[in-house]
């Protein structure tokens, strides 16, 4: 199968019709419960105790198409597995998906399911990469003074202690380093190493303006309990560091770990308690994209974190057909708030190889922001941002200097991060009119469009 190169404009910039009935004001409280995982052939005899244990989840994680076929069986036709095999071969991320997520997919309609869309790439849905794609589009490596540490903002740094995750998102912005090598990508290796971490600690200590450290990866979930505590205490003991954020998608993809891995949660709790004795702050940053990802296990896991005084913020990625309508985004925000996750950011999709089908127009983001604002309390309303190509950092989606919807080019500046420079955002080409799609195929026309956007005042 060959991917289409043209999108229905309604799919690029979806209509404002709501999928959630206005007569359902409490829909955000309707969390999925029960033994729903038993609908999958491989889990038909799995008990709630087994499914709710993080060790069982990790043992049954699916990492190839054969295992997926053994799990899902004949709920989907052979053509689906063939499509998936071809999609994986063209993707930058290796396959890794938890039983928790597999059980949440609507296998009666997997082609349009929002969870399947994010984790299982189908070749029939993939589009050609944008010609302006850069592998490390955010220039994280360029802004790295030592391996595994990005220092872009004056008072904040991103620390990457290791390069693995419990589940691999096909749209990962850090696909240059995270996970195993694929046919498309040979990864930068950032294995867990105390010696490498010491380089990062030494650098942070040498920069008195650094007060805020994000501990990511990979995923903090994949750090051992003793490493969670080692890193946390080592950073908190630096007098300049005031705030730590442990970044993990784990609450979305494997909430069972919070429920059954007591040593890991206890280590995180001790770091948070230690920070409070120093009048410093430790929190968790997580990543939900669709309301279907928030279920009973999520609420139970969040309950444990709330009891221990650990605050959680969410960062979503805006994705076409996943969460690009007002109704879905409003429901996501309210459901996050209901389980005590603070909606923090919604990012426009970064330019990542193999996932052009998931990117949206900037206009979609600006319109969604208007429809989400006012749907709930202001402190539970996320900021809609563009993380600019070239390392300009996060910019409000409305703050562009200029935006031409015909060419799909927006120009941003970032005076507090990299003054005097201009940064670009590119809409997906498949959503443009035929003339501008053609212009993007011609190097000279492409250059002319970009030059015009940069020169206009």
How does this structure look, described?
With about 450 residues, the protein is α/β, with parallel strands linked by helices. The protein folds into two domains: about 15-125, no CATH class; about 150-395, Alpha-Beta Barrel (TIM Barrel), CATH 3.20.20. The protein is built from 17 helices and twelve strands. The chain has helices at about 10, 50, 55-60, 65-70, 80-90, 100-105, 115-120, 195-205, 225-235, 250-255, 255-260, 260-275, 295-305, 325-340, 360-370, 435-440, 445-455; strands at about 150, 155-160, 210-215, 245, 280-285, 310-315, 340-345, 385-390, 395, 400-405, 410-415, 420-425. The strands form two sheets. The protein has a nine-stranded mixed β-sheet. Strands 10-11-12 form a three-stranded antiparallel β-sheet, with helices on one face. α14 (about 325-340) links the parallel β6 (about 310-315) and β7. Mean pLDDT is about 90; it is low at about 1-10 and about 15-25.
Keywords:
alpha/beta, 3-stranded antiparallel β-sheet, disordered N terminus, 17 helices, 9-stranded mixed β-sheet, globular, single chain, 2 domains
Q: How do the helices and strands line up, and which of them pair or pack?
A:
Blueprint: H1 9-12, H2 48-51, H3 54-59, H4 65-72, H5 78-89, H6 99-104, H7 114-119, E1 149-150, E2 156-159, H8 194-205, E3 212-215, H9 225-236, E4 243-247, H10 250-253, H11 256-260, H12 262-277, E5 281-286, H13 296-307, E6 311-317, H14 326-338, E7 342-347, H15 362-372, E8 383-388, E9 393-396, E10 402-404, E11 409-413, E12 422-426, H16 434-441, H17 443-455
Parallel strand pairs: 2-3, 3-4, 4-5, 5-6, 6-7, 7-8
Antiparallel strand pairs: 1-2, 8-9, 10-11, 11-12
Helix pairs in contact: 9-12
